[in-house]
Amino acid sequence: MHPAAFANPGRFFKGNLHTHSTLSDGALEVAEVCARYRAQGYDFLALTEHFVGLFDYPIADTRTFRQDGFTTIIGAELHSGAMDNGALWHILALGLPLDFAPSNSPFFVPVDDQESGPEIAARAAAAGAYVVLVHPEWSGLSERDALSIRAAHAVEVYNHGSEVECDRGRGLHTADFLANSGRRLDFIATDDAHFHHDNYDAFGGWTMVKAEENTPEALLAALKAGASYASCGPEFVDLWLDDRHVHVRTGPVGAITLMGAGVSTAVSVGSGLTEAKLPLNRLEGSPWCRVTLIDADGKKAWSNPIWLE
């Protein structure tokens, strides 16, 4: 078995899928945000402004900032309805049409007579968007909340802004719970950069997408096909499975770890490790597995879950 991220034709493109500008609550103008990511060597960027009435329901039209070697994806961070903890839903939608209809979400608090989180997520997916459950730890997302979003494609397993600003940037607990519940969701890592502290919350988490060309259409199709991995440092080179093992090739790391539904894992450790052969029987019949890379600085990368049937 060769997962799509490594079997599909093309090459990996590096991008940030969750970012803000002065169109909502970011500190920098759209042009400057795009320029900073382009200067850092990113291949693509999504400006995902807060879709609330306070900012006049913005969907950033970044098409004029596309150029050779750098493209943009149209999207927004949608808000509507209350989660179990009473806070407003945050749902990322990438590939939204520019005329996506506003919800009744005037501020960052739930109000009566507005769509629920599951309803606005489903409406975005029906409009062609790639839908993501974002910063589950920061949001205090409950298990019931997570299960309620039937239209989701992925979970944000690392949010750099939430990690560096309040130590609540992870989403793997939610992602693993959903996999254990049979939900087949992929992983993204992002910055959620607002630039209020210069670059402090930027360039720390990204998604690598395997596509034949660096266009919004090709990138979104690849994301929906699962041809991606999430990272805040390490690089996957290849990953494949036979009947007994998961084989992994990487850039230099300190640990390559295999895990699934149970508590057992398999790990290979070493200085400058670039490959591993990890036994599947350690997972005790789990229907899925995933691989984490950990480099010498503690930075990580995560494969999407791989369904073993």
Précis, in short:
The protein is of the alpha+beta class. It has 8 helices and 15 strands. It has a 15-stranded mixed beta sheet that branches.
Report on this model:
The chain is an alpha+beta fold. The protein is 19% helix and 33% strand. The protein folds into 2 domains: 4-231, Alpha-Beta Barrel (TIM Barrel); 236-307, Immunoglobulin-like, CATH 2.60.40. It has a 15-stranded mixed sheet that branches. The relative contact order is 0.15. The mean pLDDT is 97.
Question: How is this fold's topology laid out?
Answer:
Blueprint: H1 4-7, E1 11-16, H2 30-39, E2 44-51, E3 71-78, E4 91-94, H3 117-126, E5 130-133, H4 136-139, H5 143-148, E6 154-159, H6 160-166, H7 172-180, E7 186-190, E8 206-211, H8 216-224, E9 228-231, E10 236-241, E11 245-260, E12 265-279, E13 288-294, E14 300-303, E15 306-307
Parallel strand pairs: 1-2, 2-3, 5-6, 6-7
Antiparallel strand pairs: 1-8, 3-4, 4-5, 8-9, 9-14, 10-11, 11-12, 11-13, 13-14, 13-15
Overall structural class, as computed from helix and strand content, comes to alpha+beta
| Largest β-sheet summary | 15 strands, mixed
Write down the secondary-structure element order: HEHEEEHEHHEHHEEHEEEEEEE
What is the CATH first-level class name of the largest domain?
A: Alpha Beta
Give the low-pLDDT segments. none
Number of domains: 2
CATH superfamily of the largest domain: Metal-dependent hydrolases
Shape, per Cα inertia axes:
globular
**Mean pLDDT, as a whole number?**
97
Strand element count: 15
Characteristics of this structure?
15 strands; single chain; 15-stranded mixed beta sheet; TIM Barrel; 2 domains; 33% strand; Immunoglobulin-like; 309 residues
